[in-house]
Amino acid sequence: MKNAQSFYLKTIAWTLGLIVGGLSLALGWLPVVEASTERVLQTYMKSRMGKIDSAVKGYHQQKHIFPLSLNQLDTNGLRFNVDNNGNVIDIWHHPILYSVKGNNYRIISLGRDGKPGGNGVDCDLSNDDLNPNDDTITFSEFLLNPMAINTCMICFLAGSIAGYRSWLALRAIESSQKKSLKLMLRLFYVGVSTLFVAYPLLLLTAALQRH
């Protein structure tokens, strides 16, 4: 009977530990990806694409024609990097695609991978849609992030600490109905306090990527 009760209490304690670890990961992985170098580069490229789009429109207003290539926009402080073939390139050193058809034009960056389509930082950016749905952060992007191991370690430690502290709390309080409320409050405090310690560490991990 005693062994069965001990197993039951341990199950409760480590279940809480798993919940805290899972919540830590759920709260922490997005900031880590958002602070990654690739995401910062993508944000910069979106801003860059917006400036190029404005420059094309300005060129058209002045000369009533669209530029034949982006190289003709080398004005008003807008400077481009070019590859060995003279193509204007994006932040990932891939050619920026520019085409004109009638009264319409398109400017496209194929993202980090330089291929059509893709998700996350690999998605295409165009002057028609600088914030496509495909640029949504994915969990696989997090797993490939260099800081993923550190983040998972913090979450694992948070869950382990919460589980161990819960086990100590369960052992200290007799399992009687009279003390059930006290037990629930103690477990709630353990979980919340551990999250309050883990979350700033996760944000710090994200911030370290910017330096």
What does this structure look like?
The chain is built from five helices and three strands, in the order H-H-E-E-E-H-H-H. Helices cover about 55% and strands about 5% of the residues. It has helices spanning about 1-35, 35-65, 140-145, 150-170, 180-210; strands spanning about 95-100, 105-110, 125. With about 210 residues, it is mostly helical.
Indicate the topology:
Elements lengths: L1 H33 L2 H27 L33 E5 L2 E6 L15 E2 L12 H5 L4 H25 L7 H29 L3
Antiparallel strand pairs: 1-2, 2-3
Helix pairs in contact: 1-4, 1-5, 4-5
Structural class: mainly alpha
- Largest sheet properties: 3 strands, antiparallel
User: What is the overall shape?
Assistant: rod-shaped
* Overall pLDDT confidence: 79
Q: Strands of the biggest beta sheet: in what spatial order?
A: 1-2-3
Strand content: 5-15%
Helix percent reads 55-70%
- Runs in which pLDDT lies below 50 for 5 or more consecutive residues are none
| Spatial separation of the terminal alpha carbons | 56 Å
Instruction: Count every beta strand, where a strand is a DSSP E run of 2 or more residues.
Output: 3
SSE succession: HHEEEHHH
- Counting DSSP H or I runs of 4 or more residues, the number of helices is 5
Cα-atom radius of gyration? 26 Å
